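Researcher: Checking consistency across runs. Here is ATP-binding protein again:
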Amino acid sequence: MPEIPLVPVHWHFPAHPASVRRARHAVAESLPHVLRPRLGDDLGLLTSELVTNAIRHGVCREDEDLIELVLWPADGHYWLAVSDPGTGKPVLAHPDADSESGRGLLLVDRLATAWTVRPRPTRGTSVIAGLSFRQGA
């Protein structure tokens, strides 16, 4: 019989800056206690960066739009998908030393074992990032 996977954890947050902290806390609390020392800080940072980007670049009106988060374990990774209703596709940039922003996806690229950007079937964009929790990875 195949192993039955865990049900993904799913949240919706308003597209408001206060949601960044709430999302980070929700993700941290959902991580199994045994994995928190190993993944907690990096997963929290990924959550902060991706939710911040979704709020800044993926919504039209913060009073109407929601940011969606999904967290699930699969194939030795914890996967985080952050989705927004925007149509733009996030792009990895290389800002110069004087730039005050534009480094969020660079951070995601350095932290995540793998990450990608996918259009949503109905409306919007999802950024999906994974962190390995296998021994030795």
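Researcher: Does this match what you'd expect to see?
Model: One thing to look at in this run: The chain has a mean pLDDT of 87.
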